[in-house]
Amino acid sequence: MDSKAAEFEIIPLKEWQQKRFPHWYHGQDLFTILVPFDDIEIRLANDSFCMEGNTLIFIGPAKDFTLSGSGTPNGYLIRFTSRFYERSALDRTLINSGLFFDSERLLKTVKSRIKQEEMKMQIIGNIQGYPSRNAAVTSLIVHNFIESVLLQGIWETDFDKELSRGTDSTVQGMANRFSILVHKHYKENCNVKFYADKLHITPRKLTNLCTEVWNKTAKNAIIDIVLKEAMRYIEHTDLSISQISYEMGFSEESNFRHFIKKHSGSNPLQYRERMRTASDAYAH
């Protein structure tokens, strides 16, 4: 199976660990779908969400989350990259929809119209056997299964009704929308005015609301998000610093190195070595 065709994972929730990544992971943006069969609690961006069982929970890229609750979570985690999923215009529309990039919500959840046992059988019967199948067939089967889940999410979500209600104009709501936009566009644009224009407010107002919510300017909020993503690439991948700088949207490697040094106090290689040494020590 070629590299991009293998960039997916479907595992039981009880096997998921926050810091564990698939062997094919090299810092790519991950799209995540949680299919819990029991009630669970999700912590995301310092917020807690209590979700009922038999729901579909869509979490966009660059969002770290944890699961909590009583007992062992029952259900499945599906995650994949855009390289694996995007094969047509419809595919691009689905993964760039409000399921993963909702400007008002940190995550999207819909009640599954498929009964729990039926969903479980779909996953177990058609998905868990993929390691033993032909690579091309495996890729197609998994792609089609994910597509069916995304289409179900779209079907159960009335985006027109949401749009007619207008956007969340509260300070916290605007800050959340700003954060989501930065995660989506930081590789192309880190200018405060770019995001202010998308939110239909002035750069000054954007900075004021960031200061009120996070006690930092809009510029510093963007820097923090970019820095966090850069550190994620450095710590969790074997990509060279040059490759990471390209993936992050920097035009020059030297600019990327300067950015990391200025805002973290370490050069990229020092940070990678320190984190891996700490990880090895923890493992032993």
TrEMBL record:
Domain of life: Bacteria
Alphabetic keyword roster: DNA-binding, Transcription, Transcription regulation
SUPFAM superfamilies associated with the record: Homeodomain-like
Occurrences of domain HTH araC/xylS-type (ranges): 176-274
Residue stretches in coiled coil: none
Record-linked Gene3D superfamilies: Homeodomain-like
SMART domains: HTH_ARAC
InterPro entries membership: Homeodomain-like_sf, HTH_AraC
UniProt cross-references to Pfam families, sorted A to Z: HTH_18
GO MF terms held by the record: DNA-binding transcription factor activity; sequence-specific DNA binding
Protein name: HTH araC/xylS-type domain-containing protein
Originating species: Sphingobacterium siyangense
